[in-house]
Amino acid sequence: MSLTNSPRLLLTIEEARAAVIAGGRAVSVVEYLPLARARGRILARDLVSPCALPVFDHSAMDGYAFAGEAPEYTIVARIAAGAVADVRLQPGQAVRIFTGAPVPSGAAAVAMQENVTVLGDKIRLNQLVPPGGNIRHTGEDVASGALLIPGGRAIDGRHVGLAAAAGLSHVPVLRQLRVALVSTGDELVAPGLGLSPGQIYDCNRPMLAAALERPALELVDFGILPDRRADIANFFATAGETFDLIVTTGGASVGDEDFLAAALSAAGGAIDVARVAIRPGKPFTYGRIGGASVAILPGNPFAAFVAALLFVRPMIEKALGLPVPNFAPLPARAGFAQMRAPGRVEFLPARVQHRSEDGLPVIERLGRGGSARLQPLIAADGLAVIHPGENPVAEGDGVGYLPFGAAFSL
Ligand code: AMP
Ligand code: MG
Question: 131-163, pLDDT tens digit by residue?
């Protein structure tokens, strides 16, 4: 067994994830964006409310604001939403009022119009209304100067709505993470062009672009680089000056035609992770150059998918200051039998078949597996995670399951 193939030299998933998370720099530059362009960007700091919410005491109902306790109340004014409440109610007086209109001072509560009998310019209440009833009070949701939205998360429609309610037109967000994406391989051709003998379509770049794209990052597509070390080294040197994260596929293993790690070193970069104990995805390499983290993914498409899921996602989350979910497959049972990959954690496209008697999902393996095949992923709802061990996996054995979903998807 050659040293380079020794499983003992492979990092575990956890070790490799710890290294990629520790190595990356977090974005700290802040910019102010109008609310209409803020969705998906990372709120850079806590927002405090510049005003109270509600802004003023207002009616929650169409009805009558009244003062004091009386058998009948005299209607002295009419206040619609947007009007000014320039009356001071005396006991025995009421105002016609509408939802959203300011409640005049002196008012005890608002009676819903459905519970009021109108007698000319007087009203009678048909139901008791507790003090403050149907009034939304100043600051009862958020006091002026109180925390409005905690920072550090991606902005969505809820945050936009609340910020707007507090009168904020712009919000501080982290500048976009700058991500460079490139495929390498002399055999690769962009989809849409003709194939000559020996050529295949580059699917990794479109796949990773689609999977990684989000408003918080700016993804720049560098196309396909040839299998030439000097060209790749030049690319690393240049991209390292501008980007936070460089993602490459192909040429990641240790064959004669695999130049990526050598090119990164030649360009002056450092390598922190060289190969991980997983199948597929073993050649995953992580390094740094200039201000950039570098994820060198294998060329086989399913291997690139798995490595992106396990390592590129946490790199992005870390760089954006987001929580990084642990690698924590759910307990499940195998609905299949198969050999284990010696010394490596294996990932297979899978889906839940049914629940076992003990309540665990029983998962079905899809397709024939293999690092080059993407097609089985289409029917999958997640990945089976099979740890190395003495005996082959038998039907009903405990295995791991990573469902695609919020915490773990591309
Ligand atoms: P490599 O990692 O460069 O040794 O490539 C491993 C396998 O993946 C080879 O069969 C390549 O042709 C294939 N491959 C590499 N890059 C891509 C890509 N971007 N799209 C599709 N297949 C690829
Ligand atoms: Mg190649």
Answer: 999 999 999 999 999 999 999 999 999 999 999
* pTM of the entire predicted model: 0.93
Ligand 1, closest atom to CA 224? Answer: 19
φ/ψ of 275, rounded to 5, equals: 80, 140
Give the distance (Å) from ligand 2 centre to CA of residue 190.
15
**How confident is the model over 239-268, as pLDDT tens digits?**
999 999 999 999 999 877 789 999 999 999
Q: What single-letter amino acid sits at 191?
A: P
Does ligand 1 come within 6 angstroms of the Cβ of 104?
A: no
Task: Return the exposure string of 214-230: e unless at least 16 CB atoms fall within 10 Å of the residue's CB, then b.
Answer: eebbebeebebbebebe
Q: Is the CB of 253 under 6 A from ligand 1?
A: yes
> Pairing between strand 122-125 and 116-119?
antiparallel
Q: 34 near 173, Cβ under 8 Å?
A: no
Burial 41-79 (b: 16+ CB within 10 A, else e): bbbbeebebebbbbeebbbebbbbbbbeeeeebebbbeb
Distance CA 75, CA 288 (A): 75
Q: What are the structure tokens assigned to 161, written together? A: 């709505």
User: If you write DSSP's letter for every residue of 338-396 in order, what string do you get?
Assistant: B---TTSEEEEEEEEEEE-TTSPEEEEE-TT--TT--HHHHT-SEEEEE---SSPB-TT
The residue whose CA has the least distance to atom 11 of ligand 1 is 299
DSSP category for residue 58:
E
